[in-house]
Write a structure and sequence with these properties.
Layout (H helix, E strand, L loop, with lengths): L5 H6 L1 E10 L18 H9 L5 E5 L4 H11 L4 H15 L7 E10 L2 E10 L1 E11 L2 E12 L7 E9 L4 E7 L8 H7 L1 E3 L3 H18 L1 H4 L1 H4 L2 H11 L2 E2 L5 H8 L7 H12 L7 E2 L10 E5 L5 E5 L6 E5 L5 E5 L19
Antiparallel strand pairs: 1-3, 2-8, 2-9, 3-4, 4-7, 5-6, 7-8, 10-11, 12-13, 14-15
Helix pairs in contact: 3-4, 6-9, 6-11, 9-10
């Protein structure tokens, strides 16, 4: 689910802001004092808003980050000292492959509620130029700038939106280095666990796909419904995972080509939101989706045939000259045969 609603995003403001210089080299840790974000508040708010559709986490027991933010919540005078401690912890957990940058800590307000945010912003070198007047005419003087904040999404390495509640808190997290999982060291720093594990998400997505198809079976037709379970199974087994921001391959594989205004799309989005997984990016856990052991065929006359998928080659279908279908079953013999009585049968 999105962490902030549209109204909350529109009302979001920065109350306090501080950042500290961090990186893989321990000697480069530089702890700074609080800064005034007012002149560039919108720049940083845009970076924070981009985190809103991240992965959802909850604080685990003993989270040092949660404890630190609660001390800030109780006494705003410790904001600077607590963030310096957090930057030191973050620095100590930095890996050798990490990039130089800054760890930003924000206190936010929206619709009367207090929130917190963290950003690990990578330093990027950029070139600037200034026009100088010379005797020969205008000339561009080029210079390299380092330790800069740029708008590039690649510079926003890691970020988290945080809401504290009475017994813990929830986090919305983005990690460019590991978009479907979150880097191990960042997760350790946050002291959080994922709200929905990939196994649960895989099962939930498959159930939603099947439920939506059944809701719109008349619209989708036999070409989709006849192989629905197989379509879902094959997609999971042959694809790495699911990203709600790039769901077209999934929709096409399960439901076929859909127009932009298709009610199938609306139902799918609504079901994702109802399950609170509309922003969850995850890798499929293939073993939790088993291929159905049996397959069922129902003819236009109501004749039902059920067989183990292991014997799929024993059931053959061929079109006759008059456009009908001939179904041939090759078997070692008939095990049983009798009149059929189903008290719960319905008129076809």
């Amino acid at each position: 689910m999105a962490f902030f609603s549209k109204d909350q995003l529109d009302d979001l403001s920065i109350v306090r802001m501080i950042f500290h210089v961090v990186g893989p080299d321990v000697t480069k840790l530089v702890l700074l004092e609080e800064t005034d974000p007012a002149p560039f508040a919108e720049f940083f708010l845009d970076r924070l808003r981009s985190t809103n559709g991240g992965l959802m986490f909850n604080f685990t027991n003993g989270s040092a980050l949660e404890a630190s933010l609660r001390r800030v919540q109780l006494n705003n005078k410790v904001f600077v000292s607590e963030t310096k401690n957090l930057a030191t912890q973050f620095q100590n957990q930095h890996t050798g492959s990490a990039s130089d940058g800054v760890l930003m800590v924000f206190v936010l307000k929206s619709l009367g509620q207090t929130y917190y945010a963290l950003i690990k912003y990578d330093h990027e070198s950029v070139l600037s130029y200034a026009i100088q007047q010379t005797a020969l005419g205008n000339k561009a003087a080029i210079a390299e700038l380092q330790d800069t904040f740029v708008k590039s999404p690649d510079a926003l390495q890691k970020s988290a939106l945080i809401k504290l509640d009475s017994v813990g808190g929830e986090l919305c997290v983005r990690d460019r280095a590991a978009p479907t999982t979150v880097s191990k060291y960042f997760l350790g720093f946050l002291g959080a666990s994922r709200r929905f594990q990939p196994e649960i998400l895989t099962v939930a997505l498959c159930k939603i796909a099947k439920d939506v198809a059944k809701q719109h079976s008349d619209l989708l037709g036999p070409s989709v419904m006849n192989d629905l379970n197989k379509r879902v199974y094959d997609y999971v087994q042959n694809t790495v995972g699911f990203d709600p921001a790039n769901k077209e391959p999934f929709l096409a594989a399960i439901f076929g080509a859909l127009p932009d205004k298709s009610p199938v799309r609306d139902s799918f989005d609504r079901e994702l939101k109802s399950a609170r997984i509309e922003s969850e990016v995850f890798e499929f856990q293939k073993t939790v989706i088993q291929r159905p052991a049996k397959r069922k065929l129902v003819t236009m006359e109501g004749i039902e045939i059920i067989w183990d998928t292991a014997y799929a080659e024993n059931v053959q279908r061929n079109l006759t000259n008059d456009g009908r279908m001939q179904i041939t079953i090759t078997t070692g013999g008939v095990k049983s045969e009798d009149d059929f009585s189903d008290k719960n049968s319905r008129a076809r």
